[in-house]
Amino acid sequence: MVDLSKRRLFAKQRMNDSSARLPWLVSNANFTDLCTRCGKCSEACETQIVIKGDGGFPQVDFTQGECTFCYQCADVCPEPLFKEKNELPWDAKASIQDSCLAKQNVECRSCGEMCDTNAIKFKLEIGKVAQPNIDVDECTGCGACVAVCPSSSINVSNLV
């Protein structure tokens, strides 16, 4: 079994961790054992965010776009990797890093404008531009905020 988190330790280039596991996966523990890396999920993804990741295993890359929760990746998978569509797709949530333009006192609300659930709200502060706050209860982890961020300061990852 391949532990993907340990493989990243030796990667030459650390990319912005704006990737998450596929939605509706039954368990990450046996994913690498059951996934055949056939690529059908990548081909079926309507927003083309499912890419071949580390070791050829599929992963979601939010720098390419957002997840619309269409369930097509699960529908085409020949392996028993996915839960039913009526279940919660994942526990992924967005987080904003300190490199955010607003946190550097530069006006930017790109992420909030892209958030369909209005999980990203901006709070006025004295002497600063409005600061972003994520309501994790409202965040679906769709990743719509990631690609539009001009400073690549938003990550979507699974809660541990």
From TrEMBL:
Positions of [4Fe-4S] cluster 1 binding: 35, 38, 41, 45
Record-linked Pfam families: Fer4_7, Fer4_9
PROSITE patterns in alphabetical order: 4FE4S_FER_1 (PS00198), 4FE4S_FER_2 (PS51379)
Ligand binding ([4Fe-4S] cluster 3): 139, 142, 145, 149
GO cellular component terms, semicolon-separated: cytoplasm
Keyword Membrane assigned: no
Ranges where the 4Fe-4S ferredoxin-type domain occurs: 24-55, 56-87, 130-159
Cross-referenced InterPro entries: 4Fe4S_Fe-S-bd (IPR017896), 4Fe4S_Fe_S_CS (IPR017900), Fe-S_Ferredoxin (IPR050572), NapF (IPR004496)
Keyword Lyase: no
Cofactor: [4Fe-4S] cluster
Domain of life: Bacteria
Binding site for [4Fe-4S] cluster 2: 67, 70, 73, 77
GO molecular function: 4 iron, 4 sulfur cluster binding; metal ion binding
Compartment(s): Cytoplasm
Keyword list, A-Z: 4Fe-4S, Cytoplasm, Iron, Iron-sulfur, Metal-binding, Repeat
Family named by the database record: Belongs to the NapF family.
Record note on quaternary structure: Interacts with the cytoplasmic NapA precursor.
Function per UniProt: Could be involved in the maturation of NapA, the catalytic subunit of the periplasmic nitrate reductase, before its export into the periplasm.
NCBIfam families according to UniProt: napF
The protein's name: Ferredoxin-type protein NapF
Organism whose genome encodes this protein: Vibrio galatheae
